[in-house]
Specification:
Layout: H1 4-9, H2 11-35, H3 38-41, E1 57-64, E2 67-74, E3 84-89, H4 100-103, E4 113-118, H5 132-150, H6 154-160, E5 161-166, H7 168-180, E6 184-188, H8 194-202, H9 204-209, H10 216-224, E7 231-237, H11 245-252, E8 261-266, H12 274-277, H13 279-286
Parallel strand pairs: 3-4, 3-5, 5-6, 6-7, 7-8
Antiparallel strand pairs: 1-2, 2-4
Helix pairs in contact: 7-10
Length: about 300
């Protein structure tokens, strides 16, 4: 009978071991989510099925941390420095060459314009892994390389540059336009912040773990604060299940005066079919015109 208290107290070391195991497993899971979050954000693809489109472009090779990167220029007849430069950035599951069907229709009408299609590290022929810092530095290196190739000053590059991006690419386009003082930026299906996306998709807890930060609110505010304010055009589908149209509306609402941001609601458009839905409007923009608001309903 005297041993009974000892037997009861012996439960506590076992409980401590159990709790340590539970917390250890939980900690490993949290660490795994933190370190592996890129797998939930980026979906790199290769060019094994895009070989036909390669005939429409010239490759631009450059290095990022001794890893090869490849961007594309739509072929044109002249080798003279461009009078206008358009930079294109795709979504997290798309490739630079996905822009070819849209852009190649515009090339004959814009002989003095260069269209640059950008892939992120880990996408297409690019080596490495994507994250905000690498994507930014990769573009910086490409921008510098083409500036040297064309013999254009920093001011000339800024004055001649415009950007277009979809989804994740909208964030890269807005950030690049803000940092390099582009004159025009077109953001298609933009989110507000990556934190807001994490909260929407996975809940507030995962927002705390996020280390891949994109903030379109900050980029928009920076663009609006410039003395020479660029033209900002937003498109958003009203049936987008991934990035709700409320996010696009929220970005447009950051303008403190009417007309500072042109926002177009695209009726019936989802996240994946919006570029096809507004192809005419985008072509008009690329040709230097003013787009009209989309009116036609689209199919999923």
């Amino acid at each position: 009978m005297e041993d009974e208290p000892g037997q009861v107290y012996g439960i506590f070391p076992l409980m401590k071991i159990f709790l340590l195991v539970v917390f250890g497993i939980f900690g490993v899971l949290i660490l795994g989510l933190y370190l592996g979050q890129a797998q939930f954000i980026y979906f790199p693809r290769s060019y094994s099925t895009y070989t036909k489109m390669l005939s429409s472009v010239d490759q631009v090779r450059y290095d990022l941390d001794d890893q090869m990167q490849v961007a594309f220029l739509l072929k044109r007849e002249s080798n003279a420095p461009p009078k206008e430069i358009w930079w294109f950035f795709g979504g997290n599951g798309s490739l630079a060459l996905n822009w070819v069907p849209l852009v190649e229709k515009v090339v004959p009408d814009r002989p003095d314009t260069v269209f640059v299609l950008v892939d992120y590290p880990g996408y297409g022929y690019c080596r490495g892994r994507p994250n905000p810092e690498r994507i930014q530095r990769a573009f910086d290196d490409l921008y510098a390389k083409l500036s040297d190739r064309w013999g254009l000053s920093a001011e000339e590059m800024s004055q001649r540059s415009s950007a277009m991006g979809h989804s994740l690419g909208a964030a890269v386009a807005l950030d690049s336009a803000n940092r390099y003082d582009f004159g025009r930026v077109v953001a298609i299906s933009p989110f507000t912040t990556m934190k807001a996306m994490a909260r929407k998709q996975l809940g507030g807890f995962f927002e705390l773990l996020l280390s891949h930060h994109y903030n379109n609110e900050t980029s928009i505010d920076g663009l609006l604060a410039k003395s020479e304010r660029p033209e900002i055009i937003l498109f958003h589908g009203d049936r987008d299940p991934m990035i709700p149209i409320q996010m696009g509306l929220s970005l447009a609402a950051r303008a403190n005066k009417d007309g500072q941001i042109a926002f177009s609601r695209v009726p019936g458009a989802t996240h994946n079919n919006i570029i096809a839905a507004i192809e005419d409007e985008l072509s008009t923009i690329l040709k230097g015109g003013e787009p009209h608001s989309p009116e036609k309903k689209t199919k999923d």
